[in-house]
């Protein structure tokens, strides 16, 4: 291999490595949009607007969980990683007689739609480097007792508007 070809190959590999690393670095601008306290407050307002009373909110650096109840219905909403890191944790925390659903882009799923959430995450990170990218979607895990009718709740409001800060808080 000539030195010209090897330096071209080396440059291409370095460019690929740099691109890969940049995809893993959090975007500072999007982090300010996702203040945990603000998102928690918006979820609580959403739940209260749907007749729930929030009974507990807990968080750590990675994930937060809000518990709520309405009559016999008990549910918890957890903010999950778009990469899928939390899906097994939330599944292990789900009691045997409760159901688990994943909420992304206003739709409920039985399993985390990994291809969809990861693609969205990578695309929003890449667009954030190019321009003022807007990461307006979050992934939630919803653990609910059998008394809950999850299909009757307009989750689209939580997924796309309240959590993204597009609806005012009164």
Distance between the termini: 67 Å
The chain-level structural class is: alpha+beta
Report the principal-axis shape: elongated
Helix content: 40-55%
Number of helices: 6
Residue runs with pLDDT of under 50 for 5 or more positions: 26-33
N-to-C series of helices and strands: HHHEEEHEEHEH
Largest sheet strand order: 1-2-3-6-4-5
Strand count = 6
The averaged pLDDT comes out at 75
Largest sheet: 6 strands, antiparallel
What share of residues are in beta strands? Answer: 15-25%
- Could you tell me the radius of gyration in angstroms? 19 Å
Descriptive overview:
This protein is of the alpha+beta class and 170 residues long. Helices cover 44% and strands 23% of the residues. The chain contains six helices and six strands. The chain has helices at residues 3-24, 28-33, 36-49, 87-93, 114-130, 155-162; strands spanning 53-59, 64-70, 73-80, 98-104, 107-109, 139-145. β1 and β2 (64-70) form a beta hairpin. The termini are far apart. The model is unreliable at 26-33 (pLDDT under 50).
In short:
The protein has helices spanning about 5-25, 30-35, 35-50, 85-95, 115-130, 155-160; strands at about 55-60, 65-70, 75-80, 100-105, 105-110, 140-145. By secondary structure, it is α+β, with helices and mostly antiparallel strands.
